[in-house]
Design goal:
Helix content is about 35%, strand content about 25%. The chain is built from 15 helices and 24 strands. The protein is globular and about 70 Å long.
Length: about 475
């Protein structure tokens, strides 16, 4: 594949350049990487029509045949890791190693999703009657993927939606459309025309897609604020919805941890992808018995991490992906400084070009501070002291979000007991951010509607149908 040439949308299996374009910037340099097509309403209509036309044949295909296509698509992505990783770093900012990990993960996610099974439930099998409940595809899915993990989070949608027998129109973020456009080009060599269509565009394209009468379901990953708008837009045609939204994930560190053993793990729980992870630790509650040594260990480890252009040798953390998010993170840091909170590390301006923010750790700010209550989605972490488990559980749960959380302890059973009390869709014990295509992932409260992954996520792309015959 040519990763340095022009970028086109994929509609009905064909490359479509579109009439208008927009520039995609490298967040490490603020220079243009390439121009991406800016889809018109006519382009979107064509993509929806292509998906609708392909639906009859794709949904009628036995699921085991669809499974083969999706598995082959995963293999094709795995065979192109080198080209995809460089393109992903250029548009997203993460390091080459992290980009390769994402591309590989996206390929494996497709292959994992391809192993799922749609259940059939026999309700009655008697001399009088036979009844079964099965799951049938919805039709055309409109999928909207975010900019922090544009490829792998798109595969959260592509794999199960196509396996269930739906066709799709996929829209990447305007900040990171390039790798997804190339994925559409790759998919066109494997899938029947129209099964997967990829369109790119600016802020106008999302609302066009969510309100489009030819879309039967919208699967969206992004902020809670935007998720509310998606729900409102989709309501006019009663579209099915899956919304994976924001989080303010707590980590609870119990007093028996081995500080040297967990410090590095806790650092990456918070700062993987520069903190731009919906399930990153956003507030870290540390028991007072280990608070002082752990905060020093985190700072010492953080000082060893190189922040820089993701394409440069040795860079572990890159820039914030885009200017709006960059300004938001800087605003939270300014607020913490203005309120006199203690900074253990960072908090100053970066002297690098691009959207760089130094690793920043804040020492025990008030529970009602913005940096504790809001999702920062950047390399800024508040450390919070606690002494009582009941109190810290209440503090962890006192959030409008409920996406992920983690509990850390040598005593796995004690940590598990705490995990069971956390109001989050996923809670990890002695790790964080582990996801699999085989297990359900979703949020409570303002963190989302519905689930992704696992059989539960697969069923989100189906309607329930019960068939009964009287004998």
């Amino acid at each position: 594949m040519d990763f340095d040439g022009t970028f086109t949308m994929t509609i009905g299996g064909k490359a479509v350049a579109g009439v208008e374009t927009f520039d995609v910037l490298n967040p490490a340099t603020e220079r243009t990487v390439a121009a991406a097509p800016d889809a018109s309403r006519e382009d979107l209509d064509a993509a929806v029509a292509a998906a609708r036309s392909a639906f009859a044949g794709w949904s009628a295909m036995p699921i085991d045949e669809r499974r083969v296509y999706i598995d082959q698509l995963g293999d094709a992505l795995l065979a192109q890791i080198e080209g995809f990783k460089r393109l992903l770093t250029a548009e997203q900012g993460k390091s080459h190693d992290d980009s390769a990990y994402e591309v590989g993960g996206a390929g494996m996610w497709l292959k994992g999703a391809a192993t799922l099974q749609l259940p059939v439930t026999v309700n009655e099998d008697s001399a009088e009657r036979y009844s079964e409940t099965r799951h049938i595809p919805l039709g055309v899915v409109g999928a909207i993927a975010p900019w922090n993990y544009p490829l792998v989070l798109a595969m959260f949608k592509v794999g199960p939606a196509l396996l269930a027998g739906n066709t799709m129109v996929l829209k990447p973020s305007p900040f990171t459309p390039l790798s997804t456009l190339k994925f559409g080009e790759l998919a066109a060599t494997i899938l029947p025309p129209g099964v997967l269509n990829v369109v790119s565009g600016g802020d106008r394209l999302g609302p066009w897609l969510t309100e489009h009468p030819g879309i039967d379901k919208v699967s969206f990953t992004g902020s809670t604020e935007t998720g509310r708008k998606v729900m409102q837009s989709a309501s006019s045609t009663l579209k099915r919805l899956t919304l994976e939204l924001g989080g303010n994930d707590p980590a609870i560190v119990l007093p028996d941890v081995d500080v040297k053993e967990v410090a590095e793990k806790l650092f990456w729980a918070a700062f993987t992808n520069n903190g731009q992870v919906c399930i990153a630790t956003k507030r870290m509650y540390v028991h007072e018995d280990v608070y002082e040594p752990l905060k020093q260990a985190l700072v010492e480890y953080a000082r060893t991490i190189k922040v820089g252009d993701g394409s440069e040798q040795g860079s572990r953390l890159g820039p914030i992906n885009n200017r709006p998010q960059y300004e938001r993170v800087l605003d939270l840091i300014r607020d913490a400084r203005d309120n006199g909170y203690d900074f253990l590390l960072g908090g100053e301006s970066s002297d690098l070009p691009g959207y760089f923010v130094p690793i920043t750790i804040i020492d025990n700010p008030p529970e009602d501070s913005r940096i504790v209550q809001e999702e920062q989605f950047g390399p800024v972490l508040p450390l919070l002291r606690f002494s009582d488990v009941d109190d810290v559980v209440a503090r962890a749960n006192a959030s409008e979000f409920g996406l992920g959380a983690s509990v850390w302890s040598k005593d796995e059973d004690a940590a598990w007991a705490v995990a069971e009390r956390i109001a989050s869709g996923t809670v990890w014990v002695n790790e964080a951010q582990h996801l699999t295509p085989l297990a359900a992932f979703g949020g409570m409260k303002q963190s989302g509607v519905g689930v992704e992954n696992g059989v539960d996520g697969l069923l989100e792309y189906t309607s329930v149908q019960t068939i009964t015959r009287r004998r």
